[in-house]
Design goal:
By secondary structure, this protein is of the alpha/beta class. The protein folds into two domains: 279 residues, no CATH class; 178 residues, no CATH class. The strands form four sheets. An eight-stranded mixed beta sheet has the order 12-13-16-17-11-18-10-19. A hairpin with a 2-residue loop joins strand 16 and strand 17. The longest helix is centred in the middle third of the chain and has 18 residues. The mean pLDDT is 97.
Length: 492
């Protein structure tokens, strides 16, 4: 029986957010060791869950090592990063001789002080280098990456196969991990010899990247056309994570062929050029909520959803910007809700007052002046909870989560979910745990760029992506470490 180690370190790192990354950040998401990995993630729509399914399918022994993941936030301090990497490496070394490695990585992690000698701008490249050092040149290393990866040449050299997610919202986490297991099995059974090539596109991909819609749908169709060519094993489009000021930030294409490096490079270059020629198509105008609200009222399709992508906690934002909430309150909306505002102070006040109490709160706007001023609300406490719930899916289906002490407040028909920990709404499960059914609302504000669509789009009347003041205002970010000119920063 083939022996395969599984593990990983996954973090999407914003170099512009004030939200720090600590050991507790990982504990709040995932910090799993040995068999606990398999127990916690078996049967879930996660990469590790997919590796488990792939091992069951092909009959190889999966040896769990160490897995750490934190929500998007600032660079992991170097001592903590070293501790995480060393624990992963120790688990791999303890496994002894193995036939393969399956890793969950993000693709846009960095660590340490990037202006100092301890900075790690390409954390995945370093992790893969260290894993390669341990297992040697002949043991296949395969990893699943997020679609929002900043893929480096070092990552390509150190791994045998990288497979990125092909959906946004990213509902194919389990699928892509099972694909990794399938390719690993082909290496053993068919003598497959993966050769991988990278094309770094001189472009930042805009938010027009929902894969169920045009024009992103056509980009994925072009990718799949290439994957069907003789000798092509797999391919991926990385739309980049643009909130990382690191040399390899930017979109890319990477293609894997069977023992044909030249063909892999030719196809990666071809698809990369195809994407760049359409560079303007990946961007669209994002109005403020007030403007989008007027447009929604004119269209009359409800519920109307307003996605505040600048304060998307999944992108590293603090989750407490107030522009959208202020608009809802000042517009006098009824049957309206905002999901979710990260505000531990207000949550604590709600828990102290109890369900049914009416109290005055200064909601949001506490993490940074760039997030807007707090909104003064005299609100009724509708429900409180410990923040524990289980996702419905399709994204993260079956996975348990905990947002810490939370509360549902309401003022004159405007409902707000307050949380202690940051999380964007992937489906309605958390809202329902606090006695709020978004389907019954007329106006819904979500702090999310696109992942909310997995659980909301099928029943929404209309969806608009909006932009409110935030620490992640792309037009004001001071990039200084990029290794190439990138559209739309440079339009020549």
């Amino acid at each position: 029986m083939k022996r395969v180690v599984v593990g990983g370190i996954s973090h999407e790192t914003s170099t512009f957010t004030p939200v720090e990354t600590t050991l507790q950040s990982y504990r709040e998401r995932f910090l799993l060791r040995g068999p606990d990995m398999l127990q916690a993630l078996r049967g879930t729509n996660t990469p590790i869950g997919g590796f488990i399914d792939g091992a069951d399918k092909h009959g190889f022994e999966l040896i769990p090592t160490f897995f750490a993941e934190a929500h998007t936030s600032a660079p992991t301090p170097r001592p903590l990063f070293d501790d995480l990497v060393n624990e992963l490496l120790a688990g791999i070394e303890a496994a002894g001789a193995v036939d393969g490695v399956l890793l969950e990585l993000h693709g846009s992690m960095c660590a340490g002080n990037l202006d100092g000698p301890d900075g790690v701008p390409d954390a995945e490249g370093q992790i893969l280098t260290e894993v390669r050092r341990i297992v040697g040149p002949d043991v296949p290393i395969l990893a699943e990456l997020d679609i929002h990866s900043n893929v480096s040449p070092l990552m390509i050299r150190m791994a045998d196969v990288l497979i990125g997610r092909e959906s946004y919202p990213e509902i194919d986490m389990n699928d892509r991990a099972r694909e990794c297991a399938d390719v690993l099995n082909r290496i053993w059974t068919e003598g497959l010899r993966p050769t991988m090539a990278l094309h770094q596109i001189p472009m930042v991909w805009g938010m027009n990247q929902v894969t169920a819609h045009s024009p992103m749908r056509e980009a994925m169709a072009e990718l799949h056309r290439m994957e069907a060519l003789p000798g092509v094993v797999c391919g991926s489009i990385a739309t980049c994570y643009f909130l990382a000021d690191v040399p390899d930030m930017g979109s890319s294409v990477y293609i894997v062929t069977d023992n044909d490096q030249a063909a892999a490079q030719r196809l990666a270059d071809e698809l990369g050029r195809w994407c760049y020629e359409r560079r303007a198509d990946w961007h669209f105008y994002m109005p403020p909520t007030r403007e989008a609200l007027a447009k929604a009222e004119a269209a009359g399709r409800y519920p109307a959803i307003f996605a505040d992508m600048r304060d998307n906690t999944g992108g590293g934002s603090p989750g407490d910007s107030t522009g959208q909430l202020r608009t809802f309150v000042e517009a006098g909306l009824h049957d309206a809700c905002v999901l979710n505002i990260t505000d531990p102070e207000s949550v604590q006040q709600c828990h102290a007052a109890g369900v049914g109490a009416t109290l005055t709160l200064d909601v949001g706007g506490k993490s940074s002046p760039l997030q807007g001023e707090p909104v003064r609300m005299t609100a009724r406490v509708v429900a409180i909870s410990d923040g524990k719930f289980r996702y419905d899916g399709p994204m993260y289906a079956g996975l348990e989560n905990n947002l810490g002490p939370s509360a549902h407040i309401e003022q004159n028909g405007v409902h707000v979910l307050l949380t202690t920990l940051r999380e964007q709404p992937f489906d309605t499960a958390f809202a329902r745990s606090l006695q709020l059914d978004p389907r019954q609302m007329r106006y819904i504000g979500v702090k999310s760029a696109a992942h909310f669509r997995a659980g909301f789009e099928s029943w929404a009347g209309a969806i608009q992506v909006v932009s409110e003041p935030s620490v992640h205002d792309l037009g004001n970010l001071p990039f200084k470490r990029l290794n190439r000119k990138l559209y739309p920063f440079d339009r020549t």
